[in-house]
Structure formats: structure tokens, C-alpha cells
Amino acid sequence: MALTVLESPKVNKQISIKMRWVIAIISLFLGIIIFIVSYIGMDQQTGLGALNQPILSWMISHRNSNLTDIAKIVTTIANPLIFASIVCLIVIIWAIVKREIWRPIMLAGAMAIAAATSVILKFAIKDPRPPQIDMVPLFETDFSFPSGHTIGMAVFLFVLGYLIYSRHFSVMRFWVWIIIAIVGTSLIALSRLYLGYHWLTDVVASLGLALIILAVVIFIDIVFIKNSRSE
């Protein structure tokens, strides 16, 4: 059986277009607010930015060998190259097993947007990372804002959760999506802070960007669904 653009026609309990709009709009506005607050904090070292150094100092003071080993493992999972390989494998398996291409393409596209956004903003803003003396080796020497690891994991969990939940609605799936997304993103963000690779404003900004990308994905999905239904 050949691959189809849409998922199986047997899919039921999809959330309504109206609900998709609600989720997208909330995600967009919340993401914009979070990013703006983070950017201003980073740029002016006020508000959220005033917590950058205190949070880093607190993390340094609570380091121990066991936590450091765990943080290294967690942050390695979200390494852009390693994570990109994992996502590609998931996309390929999803397309083959479910015999569809739309949702896998949406996931892959969202991850590509996340990676591009991170790289572009890093070189446009050029905010320095914490001093190397505060980092746990291996050192990272490129720019700091935003956190590429954090935005990658957040976008993956947010978008994957939406693509599954929106087609197979249940209250339990919704809350499982939210909890997994929060826990997964938080673990990566905390590992980046703990290892001294990022400031607080970096990881929070990445959360805001991930919500914006989620909103864009939902908007595109809505247009695609409407066009598919009209054919």
C-alpha cells in the first residue's frame, strides 16, 4: 500500500477547527509575551535578566558528581546533531508504519524551523554565554541566546503532542501531552543551566519561541485540513 498525504480516514475524535484556532492563538500570544520578556531581560539585565547571575551561581553551588553526570546525559540527548538523527528516524518510521506523510512532514518541518530560528537569532543577537570558568567541560563557545537544545526539545514535544492529540482526542491524552512537554522541556532547560552553558533568559526565550512555532504549525495544519475537506 502506498503512502497517503493524509492520515488514515478511520481517524476519529479529532478536535474541532475552532479548538485548533484557540490553541494556536493562545500559544502565539503566550509565546510572544514570553520571548519579549526574555529578550528585554537579556538585553537590559532587568526583570527576568536580573535573575541570570543568581540562578547560575545557585546552580554552581549545588553541583555534585552525580548530578553532573545526569545533566550531561540529559543535555547530550538534545544535542542538535544527535536529536536531528533521532527525529529523522521517528519521521521515517511514522511515515512507513502509519502510511502517511502529512504529520511526519509537519514534525520535520517544525524541527527545521526551530533549528534555523536558533542559529539566526544567536548570530543576530550575539549574546555571550556564561564565562567558561562557570561551565562544566566540554565548553561551548558560540553565542548564547536562545538555547538551541531547549527550543529543539520543546518544539518536538509540543508539535508531536499536538499532531497526536488533535487527531485522537481525549482528556487524558491532553494532560499527558502537557505533562510530558513540561517535564521534558524543563529537564533540558535545567541541564543547560546546571552545566553553565546558558542563562535563564536563554532557556525561557526558547520556550516562547517553541510556542510560537507550535502556533505556526497549527495554522498551517488548519489550512491544510480545510483545503483537503473542500476537495
List keywords for this structure.
231 residues; 8 helices; single chain; mainly alpha; globular; 72% helix
Q: Could you please describe the fold and organization of this structure?
A:
This protein is an all-alpha fold and about 230 residues long. It has one domain. The longest helix is centred in the last third of the chain and has 31 residues, at about 200-230. It contains eight helices and no strands. Helix 1 (about 15-45) packs antiparallel against helix 8 and helix 5 packs antiparallel against helix 8.
Q: Please report the total strand number as a whole number.
A: 0
Biggest sheet details: none
Unreliable segments of 5+ consecutive residues = none
Instruction: Give the helix proportion (percent range).
Output: over 70%
Number of helices: 8
Strand pairing plus helix content: what structural class?
A: mainly alpha
What shape does the CA trace take?
A: globular
Q: What is the terminal-to-terminal distance?
A: 22 Å
Radius of gyration of CA atoms, rounded to a whole number: 19 Å
Task: Report the portion of residues in β strands.
Answer: under 5%
Task: Give helix and strand order, one letter per element, not per position.
Answer: HHHHHHHH
The chain-level mean pLDDT equals: 89
Query: What is the domain total for the residues?
Result: 1
